[in-house]
Amino acid sequence: MTTAKSFVEVGEREIKKLPTLRGKTIVNLFYEPSTRTRISFELAGKRLSADIINFSEKASAAAKGESLKDTTRTLNAMNINAVVIRHPYPGSPYIVARNTRARVINAGDGCHEHPTQSLLDLFTIKKRLGYLKGLKAIIVGDIFHSRVARSNILAFKKMGMEVKVVAPPTLLPAQVEELGAECSYNLAEAVSEADIIYLLRMQTERQARAFIPSIREYVRYYGLNRTLLKKAKEDVLIMHPGPMTRGVEIESDLADIPQSTIVEQVTSGIAVRMAILYLILSGDESE
Ligand code: CP
């Protein structure tokens, strides 16, 4: 985060470019749709003067059945320096790491983890509030399918924050407390003590069965609305990793009020990802 802070200013310049990673090649290996993560990694790499190659599953040999292992070995043969991987299967970054000499960054692997999202979330909170230790965050929604929830519980706890996950029982994974989070089924109760309300999208694309009776019922008990927000602290932060479904996890106009950091999180993502690329790609290759 300290390194990221020094990159914020670059994004505000007329010429947003540093020569730091000239001659390095980064492949964005995306097997799942993405707007924020893919574009911000691409911008981060370009602002550091790296060469960026965007891979999409549908336009590659993966569409003809090539395995992740063989695709990685093919990229490795091209002597690339880093792979940014997003994949629907948990653990896929480890398969990539075993088959290339390049540095590997997890940009989201199934329901497992999304570590760079957590770093940009922490960066945004610190920028807004000035500190992290002792803050109380509630993470609300589809915890079961959320890689952001898993990474954020670990990251927030590591920085000394308290974390509570709030969801219907069917959307809370077993043993989530082992990650260090408290659990609650009651959003109306949980909002009053929170410094941060972190909302999650219902991941219907990963839900193989019905986890809730209806979206209407979910909105009634777990959607953030103005009535609930009145119970919260005046300066509470409203966060969301995006993409959001306005009118479901968040009443539409609450996404645009001053307490919402949703757009700011996107901006933080570029500086944080520049820092990540800089830290893993600059310096001695043998380290
Ligand atoms: N937050 C996030 O990962 O968004 P994208 O799916 O658009 O990358």
UniProtKB/TrEMBL annotation:
GO terms for biological process: 'de novo' pyrimidine nucleobase biosynthetic process; 'de novo' UMP biosynthetic process; amino acid metabolic process. It catalyses: carbamoyl phosphate + L-aspartate = N-carbamoyl-L-aspartate + phosphate + H(+). Keywords: Pyrimidine biosynthesis, Transferase. Its EC number is 2.1.3.2. Carbamoyl phosphate binds at residues 36-37, 86, 114, 117, 242-243. L-aspartate binds at residues 64, 147, 201. It comes from the Bacteria. Residues 133-279 form the Aspartate/ornithine carbamoyltransferase Asp/Orn-binding domain. Residues 3-126 form the Aspartate/ornithine carbamoyltransferase carbamoyl-P binding domain. GO terms for molecular function: amino acid binding; aspartate carbamoyltransferase activity. InterPro entries: Asp/Orn_carbamoyltranf_P-bd, Asp/Orn_carbamoylTrfase, Asp/Orn_carbamoylTrfase_sf, Asp_carbamoyltransf, Asp_carbamoyltransf_Asp/Orn-bd. It holds the Pfam family OTCace. One of its GO terms (cellular component) is cytosol. HAMAP family: Asp_carb_tr (MF_00001). Belongs to the aspartate/ornithine carbamoyltransferase superfamily. ATCase family. Heterododecamer (2C3:3R2) of six catalytic PyrB chains organized as two trimers (C3), and six regulatory PyrI chains organized as three dimers (R2). Catalyzes the condensation of carbamoyl phosphate and aspartate to form carbamoyl aspartate and inorganic phosphate, the committed step in the de novo pyrimidine nucleotide biosynthesis pathway. This is Aspartate carbamoyltransferase. It comes from Candidatus Hakubella thermalkaliphila. The lineage of its organism: Bacteria, Bacillati, Actinomycetota, Actinomycetota incertae sedis, Candidatus Hakubellales.
